[in-house]
Amino acid sequence: MLIVNLKEEGNMRILITAGSTMSMIDNVRGITNVFTGRTGAGYAVENMFGKAAFQWVTLT
C-alpha cells in the first residue's frame, strides 16, 4: 500500500494494491505467491464507506 500525503487532509490520496504477484525467471518459469488480495480488498471496502476526506484508488 502506498500513501502519498499532500499536506492537507482533504488532498490525501491513498493507492491500495491487492492480489497475487508473479515474477518471471525466464520465458518458461515464474515465481508466484498464494495470496488472494483479501486484505487489500478489505481495506478498500472499509474505507469506501468511511473516511471521505481521502481519495482512494484500488488496483487488483
TrEMBL record:
Domain DNA/pantothenate metabolism flavoprotein C-terminal span(s) in chain numbering: 12-45
Any single Pfam family the record assigns to this protein: DFP
Entry superkingdom: Bacteria
GO biological process: coenzyme A biosynthetic process
One annotated GO molecular function: catalytic activity
Protein's name according to its UniProt entry: DNA/pantothenate metabolism flavoprotein C-terminal domain-containing protein
